[in-house]
Amino acid sequence: MRICFVGDSFVNGTGDPEYLGWTGIICAVTRSWGYDITYYNLGIRRETSADILARWGRHGR
């Protein structure tokens, strides 16, 4: 299974000492349950949700 996470610095994991963020933690736990996961963390460091939303809206959803 492939999962793409798009979002802000929280998605990216900025500030996480293990460099996983919540997306990496969820995928690591899910993998430990036996699921084969490839995940792509597309979180943007130093961006907020409002920054992402503003840019998304400019490009015509």
Can you describe what's shown?
With 61 residues, this protein is an alpha+beta fold. The chain contains three helices and two strands. It has helices at residues 9-12, 21-32, 49-58; strands at 2-7, 38-43. Strands 1-2 form a two-stranded parallel sheet. The two termini are 25 Å apart. The model has no long low-confidence stretch (mean pLDDT 89).
TL;DR?
With 61 residues, the protein is of the alpha+beta class. The protein has helices spanning 9-12, 21-32, 49-58; strands at residues 2-7, 38-43.
Count every beta strand, where a strand is a DSSP E run of 2 or more residues.
2
- Strand fraction: 15-25%
String of helices and strands: EHHEH
Mean of the pLDDT scores? 89
Q: List the quaternary state of the chains.
A: single chain
Portion of residues within helices: 40-55%
| Most strands sheet | 2 strands, parallel
User: What is the number of helices?
Assistant: 3
Contiguous uncertain segments of 5+ residues: none
How far apart are the first and last residues' alpha carbons, in Å? 25 Å
Backbone CA Rg = 13 Å
In the sheet with the most strands, the strands line up as 1-2
Q: What is the SS-derived class?
A: alpha+beta
What shape does the CA trace take?
A: flat
